[in-house]
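Hey,
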Amino acid sequence: MSELIPEFKHIFSLTPEWRQKFVDELGCTVVDKNMYFPEKIASGSSSFLEIHPDISVIIIDLILNKPIRFTRMPTDDDFWIVYYDLSDSFSRHVLDDVNHKIGYKSKLNFAIVDNHIKSTYLGTVGERLYSLRLFIRKSYMKTFFKNAGLEKDYRDVFDDKKKKMFFYGHIDSRSKVIIHDLKQQTIDNPNYEFLLKGTAYNLLGYLIERLNSEMPNAGTHLEKDIEAVMQSQQYLLSNLLIPFPGIEFLANIANMSSSKYRNLYTNIFDMSPALFFKREKLLLAKELLESGDFKYISDVAFELGYNKTTYFSSIYKDYFGVLPNTVLK
C-alpha cells in the first residue's frame, strides 16, 4: 500500500535553507518565517525559527488533502531532531523500517532521532496534523552532561559513527500542556514568533531535566530493545481474539527478562501490556458491535474470547460509559 503513496524526499537543517526544496518541488510559498502549502497538497503551513546558534524549532500545522510520504534524508549535519506530535488522528513515523503509530491519541508521540538516520512521516488525509520539532546540535546538548556516570550512559548517543536512534516514548505532561496551548494559536498571530520561541525554550528546559532524571534508568531505549518491544506489541495487536498471553510470554518474544520487559514497556507506553491489550480489545469490540455482522452481544463477547457476556458488558461500560447494546447494529 505504501508504495502507491507519492514520496517527497527532503532534508532538515538548523538554518532555513531546507525549505527551498519544498518551494521548488511542492510549490510551497515562503513568507518570512512561515511556509504555506498549495491547496492541492495540504491546507495549512509551517513556521521555522532559529532561536539559538545551536537550536531551531519548526511547527507543522496542516491538513493533508492527498496522501504523501515525507521522507527526511540523512545529512552530515550533527544534530538531534526532537519530535512532539499532537496530531488529531494517528500518523505513522517510520524509522529503520519499524512503523510507529504516533499522535495525540497515541502513547508514542515523543521521539529523539539522530539527523544521520533516515525517517518517513505519513499523516492521515483530512485530519489535522500538528507536530513541533526541535533541532538541537549534539555538541550543545553534550554540555549538559558533565556527570561522569551520565557521560557513560550517553556515550553511544554522542558517538557520531553509531548514528543511534536515541529514544521513543510519550510526551511529558508539562510539555504537552504548553504545546496544546500553542496549538490553539495561528501562525498569523502577530505574537506567534514570541510564543513559539518561549515554547521552544520551555521544551528545551523540560527535555534537559527529563534526560538527567529519567533516561539513565531507560538507557536501553535504543534500536534493539525498542524493536523487540514493538514485536511483542505487534503480537498483541495481531491476537486480540485470545486472552492476554501474559508477561512471561511477551518477554520471551522480546528476548528479555520479565522485569526488564515490564519496566521498558511501561516506560515507553505509559501503561502496562495488559492494559494496552485490554484497551485495544475493547476498541475492536466497539468496531465489531457497530459493524452489523453480529446479531447478539454474546456473539461479540465470544468472538473476543470472553466466556461471560455479563463480564464483557461490565468492562465495556467501564471503558466507554455505555452498555454494548446501545451501539449494537
